[in-house]
Design a protein that fits this description.
By secondary structure, the chain is an alpha+beta fold. The protein is built from 4 helices and 5 strands; from the N terminus they run βααββααββ. The chain has a 5-stranded antiparallel beta sheet, with helices on one face. The mean pLDDT is 89.
Length: 145
Protein backbone atom coordinates (compact mmCIF):
# COMPACT_ATOMS: atom_id res chain seq x y z
CA UNK A 1 0.00 0.00 0.00
CA UNK A 2 1.36 3.40 -0.96
CA UNK A 3 1.84 5.92 1.84
CA UNK A 4 -0.65 8.77 2.03
CA UNK A 5 0.06 12.44 2.61
CA UNK A 6 0.02 12.96 6.38
CA UNK A 7 0.69 16.68 6.37
CA UNK A 8 0.71 19.33 3.69
CA UNK A 9 1.12 23.06 3.25
CA UNK A 10 0.69 25.22 0.16
CA UNK A 11 1.68 28.81 -0.29
CA UNK A 12 2.38 31.33 -2.99
CA UNK A 13 4.43 34.46 -2.88
CA UNK A 14 5.61 37.23 -5.15
CA UNK A 15 8.60 36.52 -7.36
CA UNK A 16 10.90 38.76 -5.35
CA UNK A 17 14.39 37.77 -4.26
CA UNK A 18 13.50 38.69 -0.67
CA UNK A 19 11.14 35.70 -0.62
CA UNK A 20 13.85 33.10 -1.28
CA UNK A 21 14.87 33.18 2.41
CA UNK A 22 11.23 32.88 3.43
CA UNK A 23 10.72 29.81 1.24
CA UNK A 24 13.85 28.06 2.50
CA UNK A 25 13.05 28.78 6.16
CA UNK A 26 9.40 27.72 5.85
CA UNK A 27 10.50 24.51 4.15
CA UNK A 28 13.10 23.72 6.82
CA UNK A 29 10.58 24.27 9.63
CA UNK A 30 8.04 22.02 7.89
CA UNK A 31 10.69 19.37 7.10
CA UNK A 32 11.81 19.28 10.73
CA UNK A 33 8.72 17.15 11.46
CA UNK A 34 10.72 14.29 9.94
CA UNK A 35 13.96 12.87 11.30
CA UNK A 36 16.36 14.76 9.01
CA UNK A 37 19.87 15.56 10.20
CA UNK A 38 21.04 19.18 10.35
CA UNK A 39 23.12 18.55 7.22
CA UNK A 40 20.09 17.16 5.38
CA UNK A 41 18.00 20.18 6.40
CA UNK A 42 20.75 22.42 5.01
CA UNK A 43 20.64 20.45 1.74
CA UNK A 44 16.86 20.82 1.58
CA UNK A 45 17.14 24.56 2.19
CA UNK A 46 19.74 24.93 -0.54
CA UNK A 47 17.63 22.97 -3.04
CA UNK A 48 14.56 25.12 -2.30
CA UNK A 49 16.65 28.29 -2.58
CA UNK A 50 17.87 27.21 -6.01
CA UNK A 51 14.41 26.20 -7.21
CA UNK A 52 12.76 29.43 -6.07
CA UNK A 53 15.65 31.54 -7.37
CA UNK A 54 15.35 29.83 -10.76
CA UNK A 55 11.64 30.68 -10.87
CA UNK A 56 12.35 34.33 -10.06
CA UNK A 57 15.44 34.84 -12.23
CA UNK A 58 14.78 32.58 -15.22
CA UNK A 59 11.03 31.97 -15.08
CA UNK A 60 9.92 35.53 -14.52
CA UNK A 61 13.17 37.25 -15.51
CA UNK A 62 12.91 39.33 -12.31
CA UNK A 63 9.46 40.61 -13.36
CA UNK A 64 6.30 40.35 -11.26
CA UNK A 65 4.78 36.91 -10.95
CA UNK A 66 3.79 34.33 -8.36
CA UNK A 67 5.87 31.38 -7.18
CA UNK A 68 4.01 28.43 -5.69
CA UNK A 69 5.50 26.16 -3.03
CA UNK A 70 3.83 22.94 -1.90
CA UNK A 71 5.26 20.76 0.84
CA UNK A 72 3.98 17.27 1.60
CA UNK A 73 4.98 14.63 4.10
CA UNK A 74 4.37 11.16 2.70
CA UNK A 75 5.52 8.48 5.10
CA UNK A 76 9.18 9.25 5.78
CA UNK A 77 9.55 11.41 2.68
CA UNK A 78 9.35 15.15 2.13
CA UNK A 79 7.93 16.14 -1.23
CA UNK A 80 8.63 19.69 -2.42
CA UNK A 81 6.91 21.20 -5.45
CA UNK A 82 8.02 24.61 -6.74
CA UNK A 83 6.19 26.06 -9.71
CA UNK A 84 5.85 29.25 -11.70
CA UNK A 85 3.85 30.46 -14.68
CA UNK A 86 6.83 32.15 -16.28
CA UNK A 87 8.88 31.72 -19.44
CA UNK A 88 9.34 27.96 -19.24
CA UNK A 89 12.40 26.00 -20.32
CA UNK A 90 12.86 25.13 -24.00
CA UNK A 91 15.38 22.33 -23.34
CA UNK A 92 15.20 20.89 -19.82
CA UNK A 93 18.05 18.42 -20.37
CA UNK A 94 20.35 21.25 -21.49
CA UNK A 95 19.32 23.44 -18.56
CA UNK A 96 20.13 20.66 -16.08
CA UNK A 97 23.76 20.41 -17.24
CA UNK A 98 26.46 22.18 -15.23
CA UNK A 99 27.25 25.75 -16.35
CA UNK A 100 24.26 25.94 -18.71
CA UNK A 101 22.28 29.08 -18.00
CA UNK A 102 20.22 31.70 -19.80
CA UNK A 103 21.75 34.45 -17.63
CA UNK A 104 25.44 35.14 -18.30
CA UNK A 105 25.81 36.55 -14.77
CA UNK A 106 24.85 33.19 -13.20
CA UNK A 107 26.97 30.05 -12.73
CA UNK A 108 24.35 27.60 -14.02
CA UNK A 109 24.65 25.20 -11.07
CA UNK A 110 21.13 25.38 -9.60
CA UNK A 111 19.87 22.10 -11.06
CA UNK A 112 23.23 20.45 -10.32
CA UNK A 113 22.86 21.27 -6.62
CA UNK A 114 19.21 20.21 -6.55
CA UNK A 115 20.01 16.85 -8.18
CA UNK A 116 22.89 16.31 -5.74
CA UNK A 117 20.93 17.09 -2.59
CA UNK A 118 17.51 15.61 -3.39
CA UNK A 119 16.75 11.90 -3.73
CA UNK A 120 14.56 12.57 -6.74
CA UNK A 121 14.00 15.49 -9.12
CA UNK A 122 11.50 15.75 -11.97
CA UNK A 123 11.19 18.92 -14.04
CA UNK A 124 8.14 19.66 -16.16
CA UNK A 125 8.21 22.77 -18.29
CA UNK A 126 6.46 24.31 -21.24
CA UNK A 127 7.70 27.43 -23.00
CA UNK A 128 5.44 30.37 -22.26
CA UNK A 129 3.49 28.48 -19.58
CA UNK A 130 5.98 27.87 -16.78
CA UNK A 131 7.97 25.25 -14.93
CA UNK A 132 7.28 22.85 -12.09
CA UNK A 133 9.95 21.06 -10.06
CA UNK A 134 9.02 17.94 -8.11
CA UNK A 135 11.66 17.10 -5.49
CA UNK A 136 11.77 14.36 -2.86
CA UNK A 137 14.01 13.77 0.13
CA UNK A 138 13.56 10.79 2.43
CA UNK A 139 14.72 9.92 5.93
CA UNK A 140 14.64 6.26 4.87
CA UNK A 141 18.28 5.20 4.27
CA UNK A 142 17.15 2.76 1.54
CA UNK A 143 15.81 5.67 -0.52
CA UNK A 144 18.69 8.09 -0.03
CA UNK A 145 21.70 8.12 -2.30
Amino acid sequence: MQDQVTNSVRMQFCSRSENVAFARTATAVFASQLDFTIDQLDEIKLAVSEAVSNAIIHGYKNSPGMVRLELNIIGRTLEIIVSDSGAGIADVEWAMEAAHTTDANRMGLGFVFIKEYMDDLVVQSEVGKGTTLFMRKSTDPQVRH
